Amino acid sequence: MYRPSPYESLQTLYSTDRELSPKERLSSAYAPLLSWYRKNKRDLPWRGTTDAYRIWISEIMLQQTRVEAVKPYYFRFMEHFPTVEALADAPEEELLKCWEGLGYYSRARNLKKAAEIITEQYGGKLPASREALLSLPGIGSYTAGAIASIAYGIPAPAVDGNVLRVLSRVTGSREDILKQSVKRKMEELVLTVIREGEAGDFNQALIETGAVICVPNGEPLCGECPFYTVCAACAQGLTGEIPVKSPKKKRKIEEKTVLLLEYREKIAIRKRKDDGLLASLYEFINLPGKLSGKEATALAGEKAIIRKLPDAKHIFSHTEWHMNGYLILADELAEEDLDGLLARCGQDDTPVLFVNLEELKETYPIPNAFMAYKKYLEQQYGGDALEKHDISV
Ligand code: ADE
User: With pLDDT > 70 as the criterion, what percentage of the chain qualifies?
Assistant: First the structure.
């Protein structure tokens, strides 16, 4: 029996002079896209499964960071919380520790909340419906579509920022991809072509194209792209202009001084407030504003030894922290003097914990914002506990 090659339909379309509609562009690339994906897809730990729980966790993690960075988190998470029930029962601190470094800790908390609902209302199995998935905490349109299509083959769109880039280039759309209305339009476009059963591969093929061909930074590899023959941006040399993104608001800059206060082989940390940025995580003592060396020395007092630490910067979505830091070695202080020092550090009623390096590494979730200072401690002290070291003023 004669079977047309996937590219034949493209040649037919191409032979007409008129402008192709978005749907024609996408549907005519459907077969080439699927066969390209099936041949070239990366072997990723969450790809060999249709287990909705695993797909859910991987998709939430992939919203945080790059594939390579997600892998160790994914393995560790699955070891700690292998089932929905285990996640529902997770002690919050253990969960946050597992998430440490991924950022957006509310996502980890929402995972647990959703796991509790799935355990209570769905017998521990993620519901096989986009709408039911959407009703769970932390599951939005993209994640619901990804789980529904990859785990259950349901023809639901999974359009994230990377897929928006691919689709706006393919269709030549100059609309702002940060607008919800544009995202909805692209989801509707995907819905017109996606097919039952193949939906998971189709969505992942779009995701994969965005990750390895139609890349977010730098030149896209159009010559290798399954959309090559139908992509409007490629044909018109517009990949530098599309996608269009409205400029983001400037971030607020906050200056801080981080103090690594060492006392008798332990470091001072405290728990952050239960709401707001980095809620309930642990942090090193820090003060608003950048203290000069003189100010920091005065604050540390005569009996303490002080050393300047490198500056660090951390970027959140709406704020940037610009930090300087000091190591304060307070071994010579009596305990009453230590309380005085903590009071001068602006320490309010929040209890301060003194922990060793092992506890810092294994037990207390410290957000990435403080990573430069945590790394400093790890490099400086290496072993299990903080050890005495020689230091000059
Ligand atoms: N980014 C978001 N979802 C992904 C997936 N399933 N595979 C690879 N990269 C992704």
Answer: 93
Q: How many angstroms is it from 352 CA to the middle of ligand 1?
A: 40
DSSP classification of residue 143: H
Q: Are 202 and 34 in contact (CB under 8 A)?
A: yes
Q: Which two tokens stand for residue 66?
A: 């790059």
Answer yes or no: are the C-beta atoms of 168 and 213 closer than 8 Å.
no
For tokens 């470094």, name the residue.
101
Whose CA is closest to 78, among 52, 104, 100, 58?
A: 58
Nearest to 165 by CA among 226, 230, 233: 233
Cβ contacts of 386 within 8 Å, gap of 6 or more: 262, 265, 266, 267, 356, 357, 377
The pTM of the full predicted model, rounded to 2 decimals, is 0.87
DSSP 383: S
Q: What angle do CA 156, 161, 166 make, to 5 degrees?
A: 80
62 C-alpha to ligand 1 centroid (Å): 6
For residue 17, name the pLDDT band (cuts at 50, 70, 90). low
139 lines ligand 1 (CB under 6 A): no
| Of 19, 59, 120, 198, catalytic | 59
Q: What is the pLDDT of residue 3?
A: 43
Arithmetic mean of pLDDT, 204-218: 97
